[in-house]
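Suppose you are handed only two things: the residues of a chain and a line of SMILES describing zinc ion. What would the bound structure be? This form records exactly that question and the answer produced for it, so the two can be stored side by side and reused later without any lookup.

QUESTION INPUTS
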Amino acid sequence: MALSRFARDFAAEIAQHDWSDAPYRRDRAGHDRSRDSKSGAQVLSDSEIESLLTNVMWVTAQVLGYHDPNFDVFEFAEACGVNIRTSRGAKSGVIDAGLRAPYGRYMRPGTWEFDPVTEVVTTETSDFYHATEKCWDFQRGYRGARLIKFNVEEVPARWKPCKCMTVDQL
Ligand SMILES: [Zn+2]
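ANSWER OUTPUT
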């Protein structure tokens, strides 16, 4: 899945920026210490730079994921220059754990609240219906079947609510 144009552009700008002296001076977007004659001596450690970069990636990803049903945080993080792999080479769960998006339901930017569910999704062979196609359980079991959508008030009884439906009541 390719990143949206917005996601690609955010990632390009975040990746390009030199974050090594970000707490110590205000500079323009696209700052690069090596081309800055006024750069001071104080710089962050590599680990501090990685933390800063990851936090910038997360707050941006929260907005992108909220708006884009196809958003992939791993693809975005990698494009931002964040290391998304564990020492064994697997995708690190830390990356998606940094989002406010349990079961793939993104909280509204700037809040700790979910939008109310109005439409739900399932397939003919599913036992459950979901708040979003991005639900982790839905994604795990999805085999490309035609999607069926219902108004949340009108789901036939043969489908049961997935945990993603009540994640906002936890
Ligand atoms: Zn679900």
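WHAT STANDS OUT: Helices lie at 5-16, 46-67, 73-80, 93-97, 136-141. The chain has a mean pLDDT of 93.
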